[in-house]
Design a protein that fits this description.
It is built from 12 helices and 22 strands. The longest helix is centred in the N-terminal third of the chain and has 21 residues. It is α/β, with parallel strands linked by helices and 482 residues long. The termini are far apart. Among the domains are: 38 residues, Monooxygenase (Up-down Bundle), CATH 1.20.1280; 173 residues, no CATH class. A 15-stranded parallel beta sheet has the order 3-4-5-7-9-10-12-14-16-17-18-19-20-21-22, sandwiched between helices. Helix 2 packs antiparallel against helix 3. The radius of gyration is 30 Å and the shape is elongated.
């Protein structure tokens, strides 16, 4: 038996007894349990696993029994038309046989991930159930079933009904990542959520608000939640706080309201129609991206201001923008932490000269440092008749003391664009860089290129910007016109 000398430290930091020098334990790394060793191997990059496999026969066996992940994908170009149904079934059967062969050979190995991607047909339900059964039986922590319908033209394609009955308490508590598409989720009434789940990614998933609440009910470690075209047709609402959620994406889910008690969130992504958003007014949000199909500008700003006022970097895109001739947005709420703002606006000729009213969002962001504004639909914008602009009274009391960088694309010299830029330049004493780009980065302006030549209108707009803005800019500002 190995004997160890015990050293005692006195209050004067003197050590009594014989010190231990170069003491080594008889326990070796390979003496650890098999599941612990495989866990270690799975955390190593592939290059290091290869190196470990040549150390000894023991390590070679350990590496051979561990597998990082299994990924199966049907090759592109499989036939789907009715006349090719027989050939399609034959190829799909080959794919199924290959998956089953690999699955049989992987019994007894520890696998980190199981991913499968192919076109779903109701005749493959039994095989999918077998693969789900395999995926939840070993030590697999991440599963992904990317399914898509055979006929994309069907309005309401069949969804694979996820077999919750195949999950036991061990697999439920082990799963850390679940990614599903074209799946129907209907958990049983006694289901209490996934306690170890870190990431949930659902796309084209058939699920109700109640079922989603059940699935998320016990996900206290959830960090990533993404819902893409999951037609909930209800509120997205939870009673329990998601204390560890860092990334939330809700994309075209046909919801009426978002109300989630999230304590801290790094990234929020929303695409869809304008709806009330209530997350956590007291939490700091690093990045927010909102893509709205059609909205009045002040209404969109109010939604963001009421839902995520402490955002630091905001991207707001409105495909069909409306600007009303009403008093500027005056609210006691402020974007007190907003530093970077990116606006992507689809604007019409009717609303382009109302553009200066967009400064309402700048008035609510006293600490803004960087502003980008990009336009689409530039084919109907035109050069203003005047080289100077009138200053509306509602812009007189605006100040942007921290604004350092302004970048506009899709500049066509319209009066509203020029008026907006002149105002910002005059009210930003700390401005360091102004970039005016006549190109449309959102959409190619084929109309202008066809009727005005590729560079005709762009050159005129560039000269317009230089003559109107160059005279009022400080020499300390880096001015770039493209």
């Amino acid at each position: 038996m190995t004997r160890h000398t015990v050293c005692k430290r006195t209050s004067s930091n003197h050590i009594h007894g014989k010190p231990i020098t170069n003491a080594r334990s008889n326990i070796k790394l390979e003496d650890l349990p098999q599941d612990v060793l495989c866990t270690i191997v799975l955390k190593l990059p592939p290059k290091e696993v290869s190196r470990a496999s040549v150390l000894s026969s023991s390590w070679r066996y350990i590496c051979a029994t561990c597998c990082y992940k299994l990924c199966f994908t049907v090759p592109a170009g499989y036939p789907h038309r009715i006349l090719e149904r027989k050939e399609y079934c034959q190829r799909m059967q080959e794919f199924i046989n290959n998956v089953n062969a690999v699955v049989r050979n992987c019994h007894g190995k520890l696998i980190e991930e199981f991913n499968i991607k192919f076109q779903f047909d109701s005749m493959f339900v039994d095989h999918l159930n077998d693969w789900v059964n395999f995926a939840v039986s070993p030590q697999i922590r991440k599963i992904a079933f990317y399914l898509c319908p055979v006929n994309l033209g069907v309005l309401d394609p069949d969804h694979y009904i996820f077999p919750f009955h195949l999950l036991d308490s061990e697999s439920i508590s082990r799963l850390e990542c679940i990614q599903l598409s074209f799946v129907s989720l209907g958990p049983p009434s006694e289901f209490s959520g996934f306690p170890s789940l870190r990431k949930l990614d659902l796309e084209f998933v058939d699920i109700t608000r109640t079922d989603l609440e059940v699935i998320l009910s016990n996900c206290c470690y959830l960090k990533w939640l993404s819902l893409v075209r999951c037609y909930v047709k209800d509120e997205l609402k939870l009673d329990r706080p998601l204390s560890n959620l860092r990334h939330l994406a809700v994309v075209w889910c046909d919801i009426t309201r978002i109300e989630l008690p999230i304590l801290k969130l790094d990234t929020f992504v929303y695409h869809g129609h304008i709806v009330p958003i209530v997350i956590n007014r007291d939490s700091m949000l690093e990045n927010a991206q909102l893509w709205l199909f059609k909205a009045n500008f002040d209404d969109a700003v109010s939604v963001v201001l009421n839902g995520i006022p402490r955002v630091q970097n905001l991207t707001l895109q409105i495909l069909k923008l409306g600007i009303e001739m009403q008093p500027l947005l005056n609210s006691t709420c402020m974007f007190s932490h907003l530093r970077c703002l990116q606006l992507l606006l689809g604007i019409t000729l009717v609303d382009i000269n109302k553009l200066p009213r967009v400064v309402s969002i700048l008035r609510a962001a006293p600490s803004i440092e960087k502003l980008e504004i990009h336009f689409s639909g530039g084919s109907h914008l035109c050069l203003g008749d005047k080289g100077t602009v009138d200053k509306p009274q509602y812009l007189e009391h605006c100040e942007y003391n921290y604004l350092k960088s302004v970048h506009m694309t899709g500049y066509k010299g319209a009066e509203g664009q020029l008026e907006f830029l002149v105002h910002v330049v005059e009210k930003a004493p700390a401005l360091e860089a102004l970039t005016v780009d006549t190109a449309l980065v959102l959409h190619d302006d084929a109309y202008v290129q066809h009727f005005c030549g590729k560079n005709g209108c762009s050159n005129r707009a560039a000269l317009h910007a230089r003559s109107c803005l160059g005279a009022i800019l400080s020499p300390n500002v880096k001015f770039c016109v493209m």
